[in-house]
Amino acid sequence: MEMLQTSGKHSTVDDTPKPNPSPVNDVPKDVPPPPAPKPIASNGVAQNLPAPRAPQATSPAAPLPAPLESDSDDLSTQIPPNTTCRRRGCNATSPAEGKFSRDGEECAYHRGQALFHEGSKGWTCCKRRVLEFEEFMKIEGCERKNKHLFVGSKKISRKEEAVLEVRHDFYQTPTNVIASLYLKKIDKERARVDFSSPTTVVLDLPTVDNKRYKTEIPLFGQIDTAQSEYKIMGTKLELTLVKLEGLSWSTFRSDEQRTSEIIQVGRAGRA
Description:
This protein has 1 helix and 13 strands; from the N terminus they run E-E-E-E-H-E-E-E-E-E-E-E-E-E. By secondary structure, it is mainly beta. The radius of gyration is 49 Å and the shape is elongated.
C-alpha cells in the first residue's frame, strides 16, 4: 500500500482563537459604597441595629443655691462700730462711734451668689455683667430690706447634756490624797471647785462641748480647805487634798463600799 505524501510550506501565523476578555466594570468614583450587611440572628431574620447617637454637648452646671441667712438683727444686741452688713453685695458699715438710729434704714443686697465666668463677673440673681473686679463690687443689690444685717439673730444654744457619773481613782501619802476625776474638755474659765467644807468637795465642771458634771463629793476623811488645791488637765480634774489627820483613807468617798484591798501609801513605782 502506498502512502500519499503532500508537500507545502508551514504557516508561521498563530491563528488559534483567543478567549474573549472579561468585561471591566467602570465604577464611578463618586458612587457610595454598598451598605454593610445586616447581622443575621440565629432564627435567620435580619436584625436592625440602633443608629449610633451623636455626642451631646454638656450644659454648664447650675449654680448652687445661696445659703440661708438670719432674717434680721437682734434688737437687744449692741452693734459694734465699723461692722459691715453681712448680706452679699451690701457694703454698708455701722458708725464708728456712739449709738445710731436705724429708722429709715434700707439694705440693697444680692440674694444669689457671685458668678465669675470667662472674665465676666456678676451675680446669679441678676443679669448685669462687668469685666473689672472694682466694677463688680459696685453692682447695686437687686433685693431690698428695711434694715441691714450687722450681727444677726441670737443663736439658739443646744441643750446642755448633764453628766451623771465620771470615773475616778486615787492614791495617798501620809499627808495628802491625790484623786483624779476623768472628764474631757473641761472649760477652765467656767469650772468651779469648792473646798469650803472639810468633809465635802463641791464640783461644777462645764465642758467646751456643752456638757456639765455637777456633784458634791462626801470625803472619807477631813481635809485642810486652805491648803488643798486642784488642777484641770485635758482629760481629767486632779485634786490634791491635804489631810487634817494622818490616817489612811480606805476609799475616796465616804459613801463608797469599803473593800479588803490594801491601800497603798505613796505613788506606785514601776517594777
